[in-house]
Every structure is written in structure tokens, then in C-alpha cells.
Structures
1.
Amino acid sequence: MAREETSQLFDMRIVILIFLWLMKGAECKKASEDREFSLQTGGSVTIPCHYDSKYTKHKKFWCYKAKAVFNFCSILAYANDTKGNLSVIDHPDQSLFTVTMRDLQSKDTGFYWCAVEIEGIFLMDEKEMFYMTIQSVRDLSVVNSSVTGQEGGNISVQCFYSSGYKNKLKQWCRYKDERCYTVGKTDTSQNASVQISDDEHKSFSVVMTGLTESDSGWYWCSVGDLQVPVQLTVTVTETKPVVTTEAGYKKETQYGYLVVWLPAVVLLLVIVAAIATVILKKKHNQNKSQVGDNEASNTENWLSSSTLDPWTEVFYRSEITPTATALWPVSVEDSVTYSSELRQVRQRL
């Protein structure tokens, strides 16, 4: 009898343990822990889901259940998969995956989970819960859910809320580190200054100045329990010619040296090319002049060294045409064609 009671007690303990394990997956809706969205019928939303970098290679998924019980939710899509109006994209370099839902309808209202699959019977999946209300008029919205700013510049985000949330707490929160900024206070996010102002009627504005690349990421416009995601992207200028070392001295990067010295090098090359052209042209003219002088000198030398008797009558040919009926004798000199060179020599002499 005692053995049977012990066996029944052991079985009861197993049932209790199993029940407790199952209940670990049950979620109680708490505003301090969960994300609650008010979305418009026919609209769309993109939701970021961060995870620990050690889970980069694990499976990620998006699941849904009308009631807040994770263990019985239905997986709608895994990461890097698209099904109908649902897309799930993993960004391992940022340790997050995004879920985009389009053409939302009232039937889509309910609980959702971002989850990372952890293998093991007694190991629970890493998860985060969201509750979405799909209705014709939203209680919280933004003009642009994605904004871009330049490094050192500023951005502005305007968040609209319904009259029922007029007296609720308004905040601008960074999703990654859960840091929030409240209306009426100026704070610093990394290097950017954050200021929030409320018109106390239907909207509040967020202004971030002095942006840095580290300010990129996902943020929430928050009013009371409601939130709406906003993605901020800070673009960085390509040229950074000056950097500061640990010792406090400034030095130029390799790219900076190229930007500063390239025009000077090009100008120097142009000047050198111009000087070289002038020198070569001058040398060419001198050589040409020397060649002319040498030719004249050679001609004079040839003439002066000639063994010809300047009075010797040299001719290429003679054409003596005796005329039988001539009345006077024909002179040989009148019928001789002299060389032009000889004529020039005789003239000079």
C-alpha cells in the first residue's frame, strides 16, 4: 500500500513539473514588458526583433496566437521567408531580424512573438511579445516610419496621438538599449542631442541634432502603453582627411594626403613639362643655326680649297656651230655654256 502511495506521489510530481514547464510559456500581458501597437486597417508595419549575437546561426521565426500563450502559437514564417503579405528578413550583422506585415485587417488583431529557436527539451526559446490592435483609426502614428540624416546633421520625427492619450506620458525610446527620452527634457544619445516637445493637442515632435553613425537604429514613439516603430539611418561622409590620435595630435589619413597634395603635384608636373618644352625648342633652334653655318662654311672651304684656276675657262659642253656662209669667224667663247658655279667664282674674283 505504501509503495502504491509513493508511486502516485511521484507521478503527481511529474505532472506538476510538466504543468509548471508548460506555464513558463504562458504570457501575462503587461505594458511594462510588452509592445502594444495601434495599426490602421489596410496599412502595414515593420517590426524589429533584436537577439543576442550568440544566436546568429539559430532559426528565427514570427508566430501568432489570439491568446497570450506562446507554447501554442502558430509559426507564420521563418527568417528570410515571404508568405503572402508577410516577410521576415534576418540581419545578422545587426543582431536583429525584421517582420513586415502588409494589408492589415481587423482579424489580425492579437498576440505575436519574435522568437529565436533554442534546441533542447527543457530549454525555452528566446522571445519577445507584441500585441496589435487593427482598427480604422489609429491611436498613435508617425508621418514617416523611416528617416535618414547625415552625420553631424539633425532629424525631426512627428508622432500623432488620439485625444484619449492627450494626458499620457510621451517618450522617444531607443529599442536596442531601452533608453527613453521624455517630453520637456533635453538629453544626449551618444553624441546626439535629443529634445521632445508636445503641442498638448494631437502630436509631439522629436528633434535629434549632432547625429553620429552610432545613432542609427530602431526607436519607438511612445504614448502611454502604445508604441510605433521608427527606423533611423545616419549616413557618413566618405572623406575624413583628419583623425585624432590618442596623444591628441592631428594627422592626415592617406586619403587626406591625396586630396591635399594631388593638385600641387599636377601643377608641378605641368611646370616641369613647360620648362622642358622651352629648353628642347631652344636647343633645336641652336642646332638648326649651327647646321646652316656649317653648310656655308663647307661651301667656302670647298671653294677656297679648289685647285681650279679662276681664269681657266671651264664649261660643261661647247656648242660650236660653224656656219658655212658666215661672213666673220665665230668666237669659241660666244658659243660656250659655262658652269653656274664658275660664273659665281669669277664674279667674286
Note: The longest strand covers residues 126-135.
2.
Amino acid sequence: MAAPSNQFLSLILFTFSVIFLLNLPCAAAQAPDCNFQAIYNFGDSISDTGNLIREDNLGTFEPITKLPYGKTYLHQPTGRCSNGLLMVDFFARWLELPFLNPYLQSDASFGNGVNFAVAGATALQPSFWLKHGVQTLNTNSSLEVQLNWFKAYLHSICLSQIVCENELLEKALFLVGEIGGNDYNYAFMQGKSIEEVTTFVPNVVHKIKDVASQLIDAGAVHIVIPGNFPIGCIPIYLTIFHSDNPASYDKNNCLRYFNDFAMSHNRQLQQAIQELKEEFPHVLIAYADYYNSLMGIIKDASDKGFESDSLLKACCGIGGAYNFNLVSMCGMQGVPVCPNPEKYIHWDGVHLTQEAYGQMASSLISSVAGQWKCLA
């Protein structure tokens, strides 16, 4: 199947899931009381609360600046790629903190943390992908750029590194990702084979590990690093890479080979996290298993309140088996929205609904409370 035109490539962003499997680091690390005073978030459209819409080139992301994006809870578009709240918003609720403001909001308050995530962002810099014939569209704010924003922010508010470490970062929760999904999305959507994209996985994982290491050097001591998702279960992948061969699909009707790829990324990422734990035994570093989280929702959808006949369909979309069409995306004129988004897992064929994000956050909060021995 031919790769889609460039004007749609930057819409391929995502991430999701329900049950975070948190791997506690070695015994030298001290369990926190979970009374975090701030959140610092890095990532892409799964957690962007308004950075992309403040950059110069919205491009095909223009629909997220208007309803129905944001219709369910905030009742207005904010740059969040969902019908309502994101997981990072539920994190803030748990900690009884205000929702995180985007770093690029010039008049924002950052007293309880900062959101550096940008929709469309990649782990690797755009220059890397250009060398391999892949364009990264809409934003150049890669993970490295977000890290530099964080360093500039610290420099602007801290009298010294010791003050930052003891009074600010020690009491903060760092969410490093999901990131890396767009690196693969752009490559796949521009015609790269699974075999070729697989060769880039070590580069992506190394970048995530390196940024986490630099955050630790700056003073971070509580870090969550999510893995990739079962991308073979996402409406945009199911639509673009449709196959007439039944063997291409697993028992959940997801694309088998893309899910295998995601699991390969996750295995390498978990190995990198283990190496970080050994290098920094005083730091709590958790791996968040987005893959099995989303699969858990799909397998137990009815019990979790989702419609069983809409598991792989977008709520906001039109056409085809998955209610998704690249030329008639959510937010465009004439594209309908389902009357009951709370019954859908997928919002626009790329991102999840508020209900799905909320269930994911609830599962993670329970894991943190239980495994880090603190009160939720």
C-alpha cells in the first residue's frame, strides 16, 4: 500500500494504556511518601497540554485548536489531543496539584511543575531522520529540545544546583515519555519497512536513556519511563496497513507484525532502564508497560465499560472498518462524533478518549501507592 502524503504524516502520534508495571529499583533506593510537589513531563501528543499550538507551524494539527477536541471535561480546546483530560492531568489530580501548564505559555504559572511535551515530537533529532530519508513534520521540538527547555527553566529559578535538588527536584515526579513512538510512526508512514525501522530502535532507546541520565544528574530521583504501545491495534495503523492475509492479524484483530515490533522496542527499553538502576541505585526508576496496559483494556473492554463492537474504532471519525479516514480527520468539517465517547477507547484514531486515559491513570496510581508504599 502506498504511503500517505506528507500533509498527514504529523497526525500520527500516540500512546496509551492501562496497567503500569512498575519495576522497583535496587534496595538502596528509598521509597517516597508520594507527597510530590511538582510534575515535570516530557513527551508527545499523549501528554501535550498546549505547547504545539503555541509553535509557529500547526499544519495538519489545526483541528485540535477547536471543538470537538476538549469537549468532554474542559469544554474547550486547549491543545490536548483528546476529547478531555490526558493521563498527565489525572496524575496532577492524584497529587492535588493544578493541571500542568505548557512551557511555551508565556503567562503561565509553573509553581507546581512544567509540561515540556509537544505533539508530534520525536526522541531523536530531526537531523537524524533526514539522513535516513524521513521527514519529521510540524515540530522540531524533539526530546533533546525539551531537555534544554528544562535546563533553561532550572537556570531561571534556582539560586544553585543544591537548592534545586533539595527544595524542588527531590519532591518532583518526572514523566519521561511516552516518547519514540513518532520516530517509528514517521518512518513507517513514509514507506520504511519493519526490518529497516528495527535497526533504528537502539538509537531511540539510547536517546531516552541519555535524557533520563541527564535528568538524574540535574537532581531527579523519581522517574517513570513508559514503553511503546501495541501500535498494531491503533485505528490509523489498521487502516493504512490493512492486509487481506488473515495471518497478518492476531486473535484480537490487531496487526501482528507491528505489535511484535513494539514489543522489541520495549524489551530494549527495559534493559536500558535496568542499566540506569544499576548506575543510579539511589534513584527510583519505573518502567510503565503501555503495551500490556492497552491490551488489557482491549481484552476486558466490556468489563471496563467500553462497547465491545467499537474496540478498534475511533469515536470521532468517519469511514471504513475503523471509523478513520486520512482525508477526513476528527475536527474537520462534516466529521461526526459518537454520542457516547465514554464507551470508546479510541478518540480520533490516533489518540485515546478521556475515559481510557482515566482508567490508565487509575491503574498506575494504584500501582504507585502499593509498590512505593504510599497513600493514594
Note: The mean pLDDT is 88.
